[in-house]
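Thread amino acids onto this structure.
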């Protein structure tokens, strides 16, 4: 049984995707310790998942609303985006798939020149279209209303026509064993085609992806060449080391788990 306050916290998390301990304490006029106990109870019930300073919606079947995902770790995603852009030279060809972190990468890539960008992400295409230094190629297929992702077999067939220098991919969740996960099988098929047709695969994902789960397997960290994140737990660092994967952490030594 959830208390009235826990019910309200859960509803707020469903709307925004994330709740912050300090904000909740001010909102409900209770102590930080009380809010942490509420969050721990919600996490024990697998309704939320703890992150540094708060909690996110713990959904193993359905993703958080796309606009809410944009707000989750927005600053971290912007820094990750710039770090990924630093890996990509001018005059390169690349894939960019659907995701709020890959949108941040696209934003950072606008300072580059001579790029050819193939994407199944309408948001990325709209963002980069006005810039004459970037050539945009957009996949055909079914447009997913929830986030503007282009999915389906037509998109997979389109991607397979290319062999590019880089692929920038985002995922919905990362398991401790290095499995890369998502919610929509159709999007997973596109992501797999993108990974198979790039010479260098870059995974861009913020630390909240370690706190979530999703039902469909895209692949494994061993299939990635570079992984850019704000902070990685020890288990993920070990996977990267074992497979000689370049791990770039942009957020210093902030704890992955625990309380604010």
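Threaded sequence (260 positions):
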């Amino acid at each position: 049984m959830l208390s009235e306050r826990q019910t309200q916290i859960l509803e707020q998390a469903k709307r925004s995707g994330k709740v912050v301990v300090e904000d909740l304490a001010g909102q409900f006029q209770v102590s930080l310790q009380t809010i942490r106990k509420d969050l721990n109870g919600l996490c024990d019930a697998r309704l939320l998942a703890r992150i540094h300073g708060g909690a996110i919606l713990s959904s193993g079947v359905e993703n958080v609303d796309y606009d809410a995902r944009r707000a989750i770790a927005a600053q971290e995603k912007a820094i990750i985006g710039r770090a990924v852009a630093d890996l990509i030279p001018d005059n390169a060809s690349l894939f960019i798939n659907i995701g709020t972190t890959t949108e941040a990468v696209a934003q950072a890539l606008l300072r580059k020149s001579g790029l050819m960008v193939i994407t199944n992400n309408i948001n990325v295409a709209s963002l980069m279209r006005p810039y004459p230094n970037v050539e945009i190629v957009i996949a055909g297929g079914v447009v997913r209303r929830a986030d503007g992702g282009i999915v389906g077999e037509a998109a997979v067939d389109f991607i397979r026509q290319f062999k590019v220098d880089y692929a920038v991919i985002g995922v919905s969740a990362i398991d401790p064993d290095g499995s890369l996960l998502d919610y929509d099988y159709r999007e997973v098929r596109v992501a797999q085609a993108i990974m198979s047709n790039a010479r260098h695969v870059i995974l861009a994902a913020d630390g909240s992806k370690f706190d979530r789960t999703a039902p469909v397997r895209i692949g494994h960290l061993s299939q990635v060449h570079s992984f850019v994140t704000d902070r990685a737990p020890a288990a993920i660092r070990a996977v990267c080391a074992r497979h000689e994967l370049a791990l770039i952490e942009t957020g210093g030594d902030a704890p992955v788990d625990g309380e604010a």
